[in-house]
C-alpha cells in the first residue's frame, strides 16, 4: 500500500490501514475546514501530549468548529492505540477535527457536523545529529487578519508547502519564513532559535506563527538551566551572523542547522544542550 503501520480511531472504533474517512460532500476536502495537531510516542513516552490535545480543541474553536472530545478522552485513546504497535516503534500521534457538512454548497459549515479522528502511525524520528541547510523563503506568513494563524489549521499549510518546495528546488532542506513585517517567524513546520555569544534568541510569539509547544517547553527548560533566552523581534541578518541555529517541533524535537545560505555552521553546544534537556524532561 505504501503506508507504514497506521491505526485510526473514528466513529467509535479503531481502523487499520488507510480507510476513507471523507466523502464527495465533505466540507473539509473542498473548503479547507480542518484542524489537527501532532505529538509523539518514542522511547515509551508521550511528552506534553495533554497540551497537544488541548491545542487541537482550541484550533477547532478558532475555526468555528465544535470540538467533541475532552483532553482526557484523547489521552486514553492514545494509550489504547499505542498498545497496538510494538513498543520500540516511534509513533506520530495526529488528532484531527474536520467539518463534514455540506460540501461545496456552503461557505461556513454547520458546527454540529464537526467530526474527529485520532490517527497513529509508525514514523521514525530523524536520527540524532541530523542537521538541516536553510534558506530565506520568498513567501511569508499571513497576518492574523488574513488567515486563522492562531490555529493549527490545514488551510495554512499550502503556503508552508510552497516555501518548502521552493527551498528544496534550490537544494536546501527547509526555509526561513518571515512575517508580513519582514521579521523572522519560523521554519515551514518548526520554530527557530539562534545562539550568539552564549545567549539564545528566538522570535517573540507575535501571533503570526505557531507558538510551538516544543518551543515553549525548550524555552522553559533552557531558562531553568540558567541560560538567557530572549524572545524578541529578529531580522534575518541576526540568523546570518549566529554562532548556532537550531529548530524545535514535535516531530524531531530539537534539531541543529548545519548551513544557512552559503555559510556552514557547526551544530553547537547550546542546541545539543537543549536537546539533552528535552530528553531528560521527556523521561522524567
Ligand atoms: N510551526 C509550524 C508551522 C508547525 O507546523 C509546527 C509543528 N506543529 C511548529 C511550528 C512546531 O510546533 P510544535 O512544537 O507545537 O510541534
From TrEMBL:
Keyword line: Amino-acid biosynthesis, Aminotransferase, Branched-chain amino acid biosynthesis, Pyridoxal phosphate, Transferase
Source organism (scientific name): Roseibium aquae
Reactions accelerated catalytically: L-valine + 2-oxoglutarate = 3-methyl-2-oxobutanoate + L-glutamate; L-isoleucine + 2-oxoglutarate = (S)-3-methyl-2-oxopentanoate + L-glutamate; L-leucine + 2-oxoglutarate = 4-methyl-2-oxopentanoate + L-glutamate
The protein's required cofactors: pyridoxal 5'-phosphate
PROSITE patterns cross-referenced by the UniProt entry: AA_TRANSFER_CLASS_4 (PS00770)
Signal peptide positions (record): none
Biological role: Acts on leucine, isoleucine and valine.
UniProt-recorded name of the protein: Probable branched-chain-amino-acid aminotransferase
Gene Ontology terms describing biological process: branched-chain amino acid biosynthetic process
A Gene Ontology cellular-component term: cytosol
Record-listed E.C. numbers: 2.6.1.42
Gene3D superfamilies in UniProt: 3.30.470.10, D-amino Acid Aminotransferase, subunit A, domain 2
One Gene Ontology MF term: branched-chain-amino-acid transaminase activity
Recorded family membership: Belongs to the class-IV pyridoxal-phosphate-dependent aminotransferase family.
One Pfam family named in its UniProt record: Aminotran_4
Pathway: Amino-acid biosynthesis; L-leucine biosynthesis; L-leucine from 3-methyl-2-oxobutanoate: step 4/4; Amino-acid biosynthesis; L-valine biosynthesis; L-valine from pyruvate: step 4/4; Amino-acid biosynthesis; L-isoleucine biosynthesis; L-isoleucine from 2-oxobutanoate: step 4/4
Amino acid at each position: 500500500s505504501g503506508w507504514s503501520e497506521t491505526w485510526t480511531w473514528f466513529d467509535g472504533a479503531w481502523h487499520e490501514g488507510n480507510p476513507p474517512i471523507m466523502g464527495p460532500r465533505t466540507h473539509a476536502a473542498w473548503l479547507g475546514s480542518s484542524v489537527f495537531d501532532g505529538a509523539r510516542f518514542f522511547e515509551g513516552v508521550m511528552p506534553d501530549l495533554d497540551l497537544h490535545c488541548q491545542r487541537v480543541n482550541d484550533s477547532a474553536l478558532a475555526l468555528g468548529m465544535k470540538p467533541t472530545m475532552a483532553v482526557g478522552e484523547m489521552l486514553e485513546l492514545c494509550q489504547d492505540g499505542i498498545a497496538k504497535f510494538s513498543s520500540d516503534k516511534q509513533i506520530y500521534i495526529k488528532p484531527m477535527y474536520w467539518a463534514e457538512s455540506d460540501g461545496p454548497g456552503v461557505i461556513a459549515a454547520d458546527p454540529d457536523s464537526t467530526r474527529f479522528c485520532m490517527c497513529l502511525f509508525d514514523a521514525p524520528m530523524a536520527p540524532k545529529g541530523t542537521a538541516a541547510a536553510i534558506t530565506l523563503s520568498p513567501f511569508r506568513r499571513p497576518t492574523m487578519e488574513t488567515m486563522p494563524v492562531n490555529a493549527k489549521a490545514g488551510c495554512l499549510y499550502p503556503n508552508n508547502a510552497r516555501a518548502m518546495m521552493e527551498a528544496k528546488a534550490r537544494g536546501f532542506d527547509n526555509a526561513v519564513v518571515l512575517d508580513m513585517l519582514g521579521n523572522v517567524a519560523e521554519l515551514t513546520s518548526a520554530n527557530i532559535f539562534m545562539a550568539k555569544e552564549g545567549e539564545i534568541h528566538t522570535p517573540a510569539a507575535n501571533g503570526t506563527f505557531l507558538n510551538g509547544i516544543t518551543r515553549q517547553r525548550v524555552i522553559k527548560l533552557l531558562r531553568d538551566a540558567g541560560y538567557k533566552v530572549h524572545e524578541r523581534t529578529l531580522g534575518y541578518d541576526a540568523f546570518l551572523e549566529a554562532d548556532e541555529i537550531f529548530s524545535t517541533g514535535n516531530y524531531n524535537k530539537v534539531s541543529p542547522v548545519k548551513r544557512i545560505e552559503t555559510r556552514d555552521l557547526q551544530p553547537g553546544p547550546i542546541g545539543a544542550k537543549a536537546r539533552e534537556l528535552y530528553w531528560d524532561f521527556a523521561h522524567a
